[in-house]
Every structure is written in C-alpha cells, then in structure tokens.
Amino acid sequence: MSEFRIMEIKQSIFADNDKDAECLRQELKEKKTFLLNLMSSPGAGKTTVLTRTIEALKDEMRIGVMEADIDSDVDAHTIAKTGAKVIQLHTGGMCHLDADMTRQGIKGLDIEEMDLAILENVGNLVCPAEFDTGASKNAMILSVPEGDDKPLKYPLMFQVCDVLLINKIDVIEYFDFDLEACKERAKKLNPELKIIPISAKTGEGIEEWAHWLRQEVKTWKEEGE
Fold first, then answer.
1. Is it the case that residue 11 has pLDDT exceeding 60?
2. What is the predicted pLDDT for the residue at 123?
3. What is the pLDDT confidence band of residue 108, given thresholds at 50, 70 and 90?
4. CA 140, CA 37: separation in Å to the nearest integer?
5. CB 182, CB 151: distance < 8 Å
C-alpha cells in the first residue's frame, strides 16, 4: 500500500487568514481607522442602509466604502452619489472576502484619510461569516421578509457579528415575522449581540445605529493612541 500525505486544507487556510486578519486589524488601529464589515443576504437592504448611515455621519467623520460583488458595479454607483469615497471590489466568482482581499481594497481606498471604512461584503449568510476580514467590528442586516428563523438556519453569521440590524420593520405587519422570537434566537447564539430594529426606507432606528457606530469609532481611535 502506497503512503500518502493528508493535508487539512480548510484548517490551514483559516489559520493563515486569521493571522493575516489580526495583523490588518492592528495596522488599522495604529492608523486610527475603524473598519466595519457589513454582511447580509441579497436584497436585505445593505446598500440602502449604507446610504442612510453615510448621510447620518458624513458631517462628523471621513467615510470610505469598499463595495464587494462577484461582477457588477451597481452598488458603487449608488454609494458614489452620497459623496463618500468608494471603490468596487470584484471577487472573480468568490462568495466572500478574506483578509488579503480586504487589504488590497484598503490600499485602493487610501485608508490614511478615513475615520470610518465600510466593507459591504458579498451578499450571502454563509461564506462571509467564515472568513475574518480584519474588520474592527462585524455587522449584519436581516430583513423582515427573510423570516425570523434565520438565526436557526445560519447560526455562525449571528455568532460572529457584533450588531444585528433588523431592517424593513415598516412592513412587519405584512409578514409572519416574530420580532421578539428573532431577538431571543439571536441572543441565544450570541448573548453580547447588539440588536437594533430599523427601517432604511423611513429612517426609523438609524440614529440609534449611527450612535453605536460613533461610539465604536471613538473607542477604536482612543485604543490606537
């Protein structure tokens, strides 16, 4: 019987990425730039939430955006209208960004000029949750039409995030969505998770979300001193 070597590829890839992500996080802290990794399913409202976020904070801090997509620049055109600096990242078919891809994007964004950099990750609830991008904090958007059972179906996403935005609450009466059940399921997976119900359409909850970001950016800068 011939001998052969067994390699645990997935474990090796994750270990290397985690190390690179931690290095990137430290570099960003030294530069006093806060990087937010924003994740969600397609259609949850990432770009609209991002537009509202920029509108709420653009007079207080310098904001840059990295739009990640498999192969389009639709969202980048939308964000460019806000006045924020934006670059488009094409993943070439990959369904997530890792730390090295994020680092490449940061170079293109000229991070030294940013107080807040936002990475709008590729839209899905599986792959992006598995790869540490080097972000200061992770946020996810869950929209009401998706259902309140998403924490049960995609637990890792809820476990790795620091804040959960439950979007489209303006239409909650039209869907079989139990807000309290959703919160309970998410908290069971991640007791420290900050949960903010919002409506990107009406603006409800956006100020609470903007306040959370303000405090996190301030803390991040202070820790980098």
1. no
2. 87
3. confident
4. 8
5. yes
Where residue 83 falls (left for φ over 0; alpha for ψ -120 to 50; beta otherwise) is left
Residue 1 confidence (pLDDT) = 45
Sign, Cα dihedral of 130, 180, 137, 64: positive
Within 10 Å of residue 127's Cβ, how many Cβ atoms? 16
Residue 78, pLDDT score: 86
CA distances from 20 to 24, 25, 172 (A): 6, 9, 41
Pick the closest to residue 69 from 82, 81, 78 (CA basis): 78
Distances (CA, A) of 192 to 2, 15, 36, 64, 90: 51, 25, 17, 27, 33
Q: State how far the alpha carbon of 93 is from the alpha carbons of 66, 70, 89, in Å.
A: 17, 5, 11
Using the CB atoms, write b or e for 24-44: b if 16+ within 10 Å.
bbeebbebbbbbbbbbbbeeb
Q: At what angle do helices 9-30 and 99-109 cross, to 10 degrees?
A: 30
Rounded distance, CA 86 to CA 89, Å? 10
**Residue 2 pLDDT > 70, yes or no?**
no
135 and 37 Cβ atoms separated by less than 8 Å? yes
pTM of this structure:
0.91
Q: From CA 86, how far away is CA 190, in angstroms rounded? A: 32
- The CB-side HSE value for 67 (13 A sphere, CA atoms) comes to 20
**How many degrees, rounded to 5, is the angle at CA 15 between CA 130 and CA 191?**
45
